[in-house]
Amino acid sequence: IEAVEATETAADLVVLQRGGHGVGAAVAMGFDHVMQVWGPDDLVAVMDGDAQMDAHDLLPLCQRLLTTQADVVKGNRLAHAEVRRSMPFLRRLANRGLAVLTTLASGRRVRDAQCGFVVLRTEVLQRTKDDPVWSGYGYVNHRFIRWSRHGFRVEAHPVRPVYAEETSGIRPVRFFFSGGAMFVREHHARAFASLGSGPG
Predict the structure, then answer these.
(1) Residue 102 to residue 192: CA distance in whole angstroms
(2) Phi, psi at residue 73, to the nearest 5°?
(3) Helix axes 139-150, 89-106, angle to 10 degrees
(4) pLDDT, tens only, 17-64
């Protein structure tokens, strides 16, 4: 927490550019950079630049990680008191459906599957650096599934949902087929892995 507060007045800004590869690829590029310049005791936060994440939630997420000794703390907008007033109904409905699919694929319960506001330890990045990268919008689901595969402890913490009049950039039909294939593939991979590690 002290490191976060100390950088409020003297932060280093690094701009990484490699356009056109998707939001998941952009986050992965940021992770690659962090692993090169940060130490093992540092915490990494992901905050999108679309103004849908409240910066006031950042320190509570960090505090939750430190107090629970979790590896990852993931924001949960559905647990926030303002969710029904702030998040459109269709988005809440779609989120719940994707949460079910993510839970089935990962074997671990997740409530707000689509929230990309997370804080994690650099150790998580090191241990997942060779994992495949999902370059599109489904990267939050894919990373949660992978965290589960590695056995990381993932906690959830309420964060404020922020919505205005923006239009989602997700193409529903394309996401349905590509994301659906990913869920099925990851579910089957987890199932076969559990067979291989079970009693002989």
Answers:
(1) 17
(2) -120, 125
(3) 30
(4) 777 688 899 999 999 999 999 988 899 999 988 889 999 999 999 999
Q: Give the tens place of pLDDT for each residue, 101-140.
A: 999 999 999 999 999 999 999 999 999 999 999 998 899 9
Write out the chain in H/E/C secondary structure: CHHHHHCCCCCCCCCCCCCCCCHHHHHHHHHHHHHHHCCCCCEEEECCCCCCECHHHHHHHHHHHHHHCCCEEEEEHHHCCCHHHHCCHHHHHHHHHHHHHHHHHHCCCCCCCCCCCEEEEHHHHHHCCCCCCCCCCCHHHHHHHHHHHHCCCEEEEECCECCCCCCCCCCHHHHHHHHHHHHHHHHHHHHHHHHHHCCC
Least Cα distance to 111 among 135, 87, 76, 158 occurs for 76
Are the C-beta atoms of 106 and 188 separated by less than 8 Å?
no
pTM of the complete model? 0.83
